[in-house]
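Final paragraph of the annual report: two paired records, presented back to back.
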Amino acid sequence: MTRGTTGPPVRTSSFVGRRQEVAEVKRLVAAHRLVSLTGTAGVGKTRLVLHAVPRLARGFADGVHIVQLAGVRDASLVPLALIEALNIRDVSGRSPMRVLVDHLQDRESLLVLDNCEHLADACAHLVEVLLAETAGVRVLATSRHPLDVPAQHVLELQPLATPTPGEPLPPKPALEYPALALFADRAAAVLPGFQLTAANQDAVAALCRRLDGLPLAIELAAVRMRALGVQQLLERLDRRYRLLADSGENGQALSRHRTLRAAVDWSHDLCTPGERAVWARASVFAGSFDLGAAEEVCAGPGLDRDAMVDAVAGLVDKSLLVRDGDAVHARYRMLESIRQYGLDRLREDATGAEEAARRRVRDWCLDFVEECERRWFGPDQPELIRRLHAESDLLRSAFEFCLNTPGELRAGLKIAGHLWFFWFATGALVEGRYWLERLLAVAPEPSVARARALWTLALMLLSQGNAARGAPLAEEARELALRLGDEAEVAHSFFGRGGARLISGDYGRAREVYEEALSRPPCEGESMSLVGFKYVELAHVLAIQGEYDRAMALCEEFRLICVAHGEQWVHSYLLRILAFAEWAEGDRAAARTHARECLRLKRVVGDVFGTGMTLELLAAVHARDGEGRPAAVLLGAAERIWQDAHVALDRTPSHGPVRTEAEEGARALLGDAFENACREGLELTLDDAVGYALGERESPARQVLDSPLTRRETQVAELIAEGLTNQQIADRLVVALRTAEGHVERILSKLGFTSRSQVAVWAEARRATRP
């Protein structure tokens, strides 16, 4: 469902040099399915790839997806990191690897796996499986060493070119030596007006040679231009380098490692005590972090919270922290070599310092998710979802800490239990099940946290259609909560107990559960969202049983509470059930209005599965109104959601009849045109489908109607109409020449043409008549 590029933001500092390397990456990606970009630490692999990505994106119909693996420490999490990057929302219950393979089966995507070296075996296995079981996927990996995959093509990134000692410099040395250009660019950022001149260029050249042309080392040295001249920089670095040279290292790679170590060591010495403390303690962060997390984790002896802003700013100024995010949401991260240096310093600091810092990360994560759950029933839901996505690496590291550290399992269960709403609202059930099943398997002791984790896992299993496993877990959660005397968790367990009956079509027993749950007033600690779902689920059953008035009354009753609190997620479900009851009763105008209101809220929250059900309901409304084409398009859009998620929710007894009536009505209205309209919906992104359903776009078609061509073939046909040759098409799409030639041959065959001019005329005609 994604297009374009997904992944972390690109650093905002300018990109210097590497023009030939960028062109070579583009060429290799077009010619090979696996390209490994290798090189020593600090050579600029990530920067090069991020710079190349926008130039690669147009070559992949289903986008480029960047997966930052630096923050992933456990090899088993590699598939989950990729699932999140691809925004896969799957409820099939299959293994993460199977989910990935099936999702990518018919897609043309480039996967960028950045920082693979510490997960080399897991990345190699993942890539081998994907390349073997998909046809249109390509992989660009960065690592200090090649992956152990036979099919790969390796491009080793060398340091930036520097002048040979004793060689006269040309009139404009920065144009010929990227290392000098990089130093001048970064120096000018801290010393406005700095530029290479006849007076300083020899010293800059010597400095860049001493730094072996390593971009990271050059950047760290250039920052010192705020206080030192170039010659002073060179003299001090020489002293530092000679000390490390006594280590006896030899060989080119070891020499570059020593060079980087000298630059990083010197940067550390020039930091204030507070900056050093933040550097060391923040090295336990997986991925990026914000200032609030830094204040909680890094404050301590030698640094109080009030001094944190200055310490973080100082590290950013020294290029030791990278500022990510936007103008509103600032986040920070360390390059892997800088992070590893800080971790080494933390381990040298005191016995147990690393574990203490990781425990503070755990504490911060627990406080964070508790706060998110407290605030969830309110107006902040979109912001909370954004923040929880941003902290995914930190949360994973906290789970791993809890699983691998004695005495921490209950804390892990608590974190998982507080995340139930996030995993459900965003459809991230694969990840939720992964952590819940691991934690519950090793933490059998009775606790309130276990009771919550049990009903949360039960809901996930039921959402995946697995009542055989889900129903017993829901009952176990209720019995444990009763034994522990926790009324809130007893109340929470109703959702799973009723859901098991609802998805199996036992509406009478489901109604009993929901009636009992709603008859009890909310108790202290009970989630208002789950209180709202008592109304949603009971209203749903009532509407199925034909008690439309009471169903609509229940929806309207709790809608007032949602509106008063600015809540959107539960509100969207109330609107869908309200629209369903109105549709079933025959009030199509009201059903259309409320279904569209529901879609607006689901778009804000990002509820994929709820969107799919609502698109089908709106399709049923269109079909009853005699509007066959929009009904078919929306059915196709919903089908794409179900295909991507491998979910059979649209065929359950409680929901299947809606789709059945919509499809039968649309087919009757359109006849043979139904399949084309439905295929148009299948081609839509989620945003396009919702925009079409809301009447914001006249036609969301991404593929020419009545065309036998795929999206990529249609794109090639349009390029032929522009007069491009096969080689020019290959260059435009960043694919190999033989790939472009294959597309052209298939287009001619499918259309029954014998010449490119016929294809051009066909493409122009379709473009002129496209709605």
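The closing record of the year follows.
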Amino acid sequence: MLTGNEIRSKFIKFFEEKNHKHFESASLIPDDPTLLLTVAGMVPFKPYFLGQKEAPTPRVTTYQKCIRTNDLENVGRTARHHTFFEMLGNFSFGDYFREEAIIWSWEFITEVLKLEKDKLWVSVFTTDDEAERIWIEKCNFPKERIVRMGESENWWAAGPTGSCGPCSEIHVDLGPAYGGDENSKLGDEGTDNRFIEIWNLVFTEWNRMEDGSLQPLPKKNIDTGAGLERVAAMVQGKSNNFETDLLFPIVEEAGRLTNTTYGESPEKDFSLKVITDHSRAVTFLVNDGVIPSNEGRGYVLRRILRRAVRHGRLLGRTELFMFEMVDKVVDIMEGAYPELRKNIEHIKKVVKIEEEKFSNTLDQGIQLVTNEIKAVKERGENKLSGEVTFKLYDTYGFPYELTEEICEENGIEVLKEEFVEKMEEQREKARSARSVVMEKGQDSVIEELYDKYGTTEFVGYTELMTNGKLLSVRELENNRYALIFDRTSFYAESGGQEADHGIIEGEKLVARVLDVQKQKEIYTHVVEIESGLEELVEGATLSLTVDPVRREEIGKNHTATHLLHQALKDVLGSHVQQAGSACGADRLRFDFNHYEALTAEELERVEKIVNERIFMGTSVNSELMSMDQAKAKGATALFGDKYGSEVRVISIGDYSMELCGGTHINNIGKIGLFKIVSEAGVAAGVRRIEAQTSYKAYLAVVEMEKTMKRVAKNLKTDLNKIEERSEKVVEEVRDLSKETEALKAKVASFEANSLFDEVQEINGVKVLVKAFKDKEADSLREIVDKAKDKLGSCVIALGSDNDKAVFAVGVTKDLISKVKAGDLVREAAKIAEGNGGGRPDFAQAGGKNGAKVEEALATLKEILVNTL
């Protein structure tokens, strides 16, 4: 019996022997901007099928990792639904067609996999006589097991128009035990779980026109897909994909971590399968650079991970466990995807951090949902309103999908339309709160100039001075004007790089350039006039000169961000991607995807790598090439950026290669020095590094040295002994803190003892109510604890006026059935214009008005008189 790994390798070998080139699995993040994730084996080859690009080779074979979430609620409930799965495929781009595709699929299934021929069924498109003929004549396949089906089952199309064609699907019959009877055929009602599709052969041969008519394609293509998990189940004699060797060891690991045995009950098996499937999806998504977030791919990852964590809770697992599941997934999958082992620590860290975040709110959310469901049932209803689901989502961060799933398990309908309406109301409020200010007429001016003259010619990569014809003059405020020329050497603000400054001159005109912006590749220069305003007329030819010092300083910082980007990948892992940047003359800022703050050691390594590269003095080269050429060379492109047919590639030796339209220095040695000045988080999964280069970096180091000298002076030691001296001071402070705490305890004990004369009895209960001046919350707590120890059964209520109000209330456990500390302190805080609460036996609170402390304590005494 073949293992899943053997099936995968035999498939590739089989088609390599048929002159196919094996392409490695593409990323789950597709190049196709219309797709969120790679959903099928053909996705990486979509441009070749659509005729947008020429295929690099006519025959290709792959095993492709895929993610689909359209049937997420069915994952774990059925035998064959998955979020993550592998698609085996062979493809032909204008080479072989129907006959070879059918014959080879039959050969592989019967001779390599050795599936029983009499259990196989085939479907073909209604009018595809050719496919049926090939199956019968070339494969000796019995006609009675060939079923013709319509467009819904046996037709593939890229969209309403464009490439399309019929397909032929291969199925395995599991027998009457899974539906129907001895006379049932493929396609009969009630046989979906009996006839299992394992391979789809698509014959792309038509081009559907706007009027719906079909025109033959000049080149016919083959696109096939066989789900590895399904094939493995059929080869291994399993009716359920989760029982194959690709998945069952992961099921067992989920069982071990949740103390559950597979087969105990359908409900527990369901949860184990969810955890198993989702652990594969989570592992591969994180490996390919996806970070949990509230949108796009990050939301897909977050949703899948949180669903798995919830099913762990259903099985009784309250501790973190999903990050541990990664180990077993890697064990099973690393043979085909060796990069998993390399990235395993990164994957586990991301999963653990997200799991920790969600675990903090999961139990509370589940309880809230359960309470709402109980309330709905008590009212004799069976629907949960959108207002409730939105509150759970918006206030408590509980995912809508989990609310929906829990309700479904309890027979409660969720009114999704109401939830969507509430979401839209919130978005509308957010939109209304924003104001966008635009200069009137700006767009119309640009459009007119574009129609009349086209785009501005930018020559600034090679020339810092040029002559340009003035095409447009617009007066702004404060002696400033907006100028547009037919050509310019000034770089416009773009891609996080600040605009050039400089001078525009005529015979008498001197205009200082303060900013440059571009729209539709038309450059607008914002200038301040120093003299010669009369020369500022449309049609005039003027001299445009960029400030070379500023240009070079910006170039140093921009080039440093390229080095920083690669150094971060070297230290943190290949998942690091740029999420934004800002490069000016005196600073640089670099945002990137990462899940946690960098340690001091990591920052030190990054900084060291960048400086080592600077000291090498490597040349910086720029080259124009096609996007395909850039990708072939391994250039890094920023996801979501739009690039033209020709792109500019910046290379720093063999260390860094990125697509970039900014300006750079010609040798990294000119950067001189690179110094990180800060690292912080700016959004979920996004970190920010701010740094300085060149002379500014030197000044930063000098300032640090001055600070250290001042510290050394304050510590009364030499600069070279500052670390040793500071450690001693810290130790001394620690000892003094211990002494201070001990003294505080003694003072509190003394004060508590001195207060015993003020203890009153209310209805037989010892009560101490006392106001202080300028006493901190910790001191009040100490007194409460000491007094409770000394008095035994009692109620203690203390307050202090520190300009603001501070309260501490203690109730011994034998009295909390009559009065609770949290209730008392809340009443006191209200009077002092504050709030607070706590446990029944002890609570603290604060208020804005310290002058109200006496009044608040008097009120507490009245409450105690009426309560005890």
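Confidence is low (pLDDT under 50) at residues 430-442, 639-643. This concludes the annual technical report; the extension proposal builds directly on these records.
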